[in-house]
Amino acid sequence: MTDVADFAVATFAQRPDLLGKVFGPEIQSAVPEFMRHDPVGALYYRNGQIEHYSKFGLVAIDPAEPDRPVARAFSVPFAFRDGTPGREELPDSGWDAVIRWADEDRRAGRRATTVSALEIMVAPRLQRSGISRQMLAALRDNARRRGFADLYAPLRPTDKHREPLTPFADYVARQREDGLPYDSWVRTHVRAGARIVKVAPCSMVIAGTIAEWRRWTGLDLAESGPAIVPGALSPIHVSLEQDHAVYVEPNLWVHHRLG
Hints:
alpha+beta; ten-stranded mixed β-sheet; 7 helices; 10 strands; 23% helix
């Protein structure tokens, strides 16, 4: 284990007993319910899949309660710019695409050349305490320790949900007076050495029936058209006539050079 501030960080290869616990309500409540229903995520997070990536998942533990995780971080190795067709540039479909690529690589026995972060999630009671920054450092260290020179990440800007109608490209281009990004999570990555690469305009796609979206959000969704959903970075698209709603989430690709 590696000490990170007042917590210890381990891979799930070291602490497989905590894998199920990090999906419990204490940490899982950090994200809106609808975010758990991107079908592509099953290629990584489903039982029988996630175990393949146990060396690339991290858990933070309070030493006073060694069986109670307080944060999780997941990443995935994949082949990039290695001659594989279609892998010359980071994909516009961001999070979804990198999970698909990693799954294809594993099944084909293709050697990974780099790593992408997928998420860092902290128990709500400990958010804004610096743990996410420490987990980012641990993800960087873990990738470097495993022989990789680069860590990419399709970022979900922490504060964008407060401005769902602001165009994503405009939001992520906004800077403070000191020249650093306006968004706190993007700013954390830049301070850690990341370079902003580009927007991934359709990084996650979550579709469901109207009944499913009502259950996920607690909203009536009584009209067709765009709808503001708490926690979403942009409006969802509702069609009562077709009995479905679709959320397309943009993310921001960043690149951490680890060498």
